[in-house]
Amino acid sequence: MLKKCSFKVCLFGIALFALLALVGVVASRPAAGAPFTSPLPTPSLLPASPFDSPLSPPVLEAQARIALRYIAKRESVPLDDLLVAHRHRREYPLLGRQFMAFTIFDRTARRDFHLLVDLDDGSVVNDVAAVERAEAGARRAKYGRLHPTLYERLQTAGEEETLPVAQRAGISCWRK
């Protein structure tokens, strides 16, 4: 239990702290009518659309320029209306090909286009799914139903070497 004396001392300390804090805040304020100066730079005007940027456009690599020109020509769209929304590298080792995949966005029509640009010769592939199917076909032709890791291990295994293998049982329980 606190004594009345220590309670009064505590209250006095809190009041003193509050008074000093108030004096510090008032003293640090600029004089009334003085102009406010911000430490931050003044921002420029907001862009006209969410896709416009006040920053200068980044330097596009050759594949991006190829993809943008291709879509502009194919769709009869001005080049300035197109934007590279996404890009990433794709490799298809069994086909022996490497691509840069692009998603190109048409700002006026609000639609997007997906295509691949070959990193070796700069050719454009419209049908991404066809390349995926060709890679899957090459995978089936090389490995069959084996996992690629097991296939590679079997290539280096000796004739008498025993390898541990697990097989998944496909049992279905259908009732009539």
How would you sum up this structure, described in words?
- With 176 residues, this protein is of the alpha+beta class.
- The chain has a domain at 62-128.
- It is 36% helix and 18% strand.
- Strands 1-2-3-4 form a 4-stranded antiparallel beta sheet, sandwiched between helices.
- The longest helix has 25 residues, at 4-28.
- Report the structural category: alpha+beta
CA radius of gyration is 34 Å
Secondary-structure element order, N to C: HHEEEEHH
Beta strands, count: 4
Across the major sheet, the strand order is: 1-2-3-4
Averaged pLDDT: 81
DSSP summary: helix tally: 4
Q: Which percent range describes the beta-strand content?
A: 15-25%
Biggest β-sheet description: 4 strands, antiparallel
Shape: flat
What is the CA–CA distance across the termini? Answer: 80 Å
Ranges with pLDDT <50 over ≥5 residues?
Answer: none
- Helical residue percent? 25-40%
What is the strand and helix layout of this fold?
Blueprint: H1 4-28, H2 62-75, E1 82-92, E2 97-106, E3 111-118, E4 124-125, H3 128-143, H4 148-156
Antiparallel strand pairs: 1-2, 2-3, 3-4
Relevant terms:
flat; four-stranded antiparallel sheet; 176 residues; 36% helix; alpha+beta
Provide a short characterization of the protein structure:
This protein is 36% helix and 18% strand. By secondary structure, it is of the alpha+beta class. The protein has a domain at 62-128.
